Amino acid sequence: MEITGLQWGITLALILGLLAYDFFFHVRKPHEPTIKEAAIWSSVYVGIALLFGLVILWMDGPQLTAEYYGGYITEKALSVDNLFVFLIIIASFKVPRADQQKVLLFGIVFALIARTVFIFIGAAAINAFSWVFYLFGLILIYTAGKLIAGEVKDSESDEADNFVVRLAKKVLPTTDYYDGDKLFTMENGKKVMTPMLLVMVAIGGTDILFALDSIPAIFGLTQEPYIVFTATAFSLMGLRQLYFLIDGLLDRLIYLSWGLSLILLFIGIKLMLHALHENTLPFINDGQHVPVVEVSIGLSLTVIISF
Q: How far apart are the first and last CA of the chain?
């Protein structure tokens, strides 16, 4: 089914409206959300995402609805993994609690932009080259292996001191203190960066790395760009509030990496099976399609919810 330009336009307006509301009514005035506030707004954004699935059911039918819910649940699970890295980066920079909301909202907006770029690059690549499924499948299986081995969490503890941040420090002098939520401040009559800007650079660089894993995961469930975009966008909504819910509860979520690794491994295998089914590579089965069992969206949704 073809998604109309009107449907795209209304959807984009809704997402931009939610981001604007979040900024003007929650983030603009620095404060630390209470657990109650974070829980309520996390629930609100999840509710909006679930209701949007019913809109897709009404406008586009049950197939795309199932793909949307499968993609949303997968991306929501992966976005929680993002938060662990955000926790590490924000803690390493000692960002004041009242100013953390602005950093998180920037991370969400940047993640949405980065993922949108990768979505349309990925969609174009998939339409032109079916072998891309092999690449995406291998990326997910490799990432699942790293999660199981515990390498992702360990290696990402140094993300705040990555190459991008070191390069940024060389471009402009930086203060050792925060000036509210300002990105630049005046020191000895000169305009200098504050650590707040470096935090955002680190968050943005990490978002790009996560997009490389996130987009292949959802392309394993659907190849419709509209569903990929909406499932990804709504999974990012409410991420700021969720951050304050899980902060300090890391010890209780000891099985998160295992759950995520199993989801990624399952989708990676599904992608590889689909790649074999659509095979055009001459060194595999003489360039002919390989008769394999493909995983249905119903089974995919069941497995994702179970994990």
A: 30
